[in-house]
Structure formats: structure tokens, C-alpha cells
Amino acid sequence: MRALVQRVLSARVEVEGATLGATGPGVLILVCAMQGDGAAQAEALAAKILKLRIFRDAGGKMNLALKDTGGSALVVSQFTLAADTRSGNRPGFSAAAPPDQGERLYLHFAQSLRQLGADVETGRFGAEMAVHLVNDGPVTIWLDTEA
Question: What is the pTM of this model?
């Protein structure tokens, strides 16, 4: 699985003008299930993100994890993280998991974060979403369970 994790002061996701999910200080996680991914990858990615030390401690150093700060997470599916741009100018997305598997793993990832103690809200898989965020830092981290 792939994820782009952004430390945010706030973020929200809307579908057709209605807010589906939001977070205060915490993380916005854009996530994509890849071909061959399963529950193990979703769970490993959730555990890694929850322990990722990207929040400032009292001394101003990035030394705290989401689990340490009590922050929350907004999880948004984004199959375009599977983009292959090596050939031509139009990205290919064949490395992404098929939609039914992608949705199942997206939901499993969000549930895994919840089971690990995170406060999690989500967007809607497959929907045209508007994501609003106020980046903090900015801090943006790319994670891939294959890397």
C-alpha cells in the first residue's frame, strides 16, 4: 500500500458540498491499495503511521507520534498514488488494486488505525472529493509497504 501523510492543523473532505470527514491537528492520509496488497499491508501501514514521529516535542524537534499527541487522522482514498509516469505524458494506473479490493483495503486500513487507538474519519471511496487542508510545517511523508 502507498500513503502520502501530511501533518495538518486541520483538514476536511467534502462530497457534493457536504463534509464527510474532518480532523483538527493531526494527519491527512491519502492512501492507495496496490496490486497484490492484502490485510497485512494495510495493518503494517497503519501501525507505521501511528508511530511515525513527525510532531514537535516541547523542544521543537519532530519527536512525537500521532499516538503521543492525541491528534486525529483523516483518511482519503487516492488511487492516483499508483500513477506510472515512466512512459508518455498520460499516467497509467494499472498498478492500483481493482476497485473492490481497493475499497476493502482502504476501509481495513482506516479500521486498523482505529483499533490502534487513533480517532479516524474518512472520505468516500471512489467519489469525486474536495479535500481542504492547512498543512503544518509543511511536513509531507511518502510511505510504501513495498519500499
Answer: 0.96
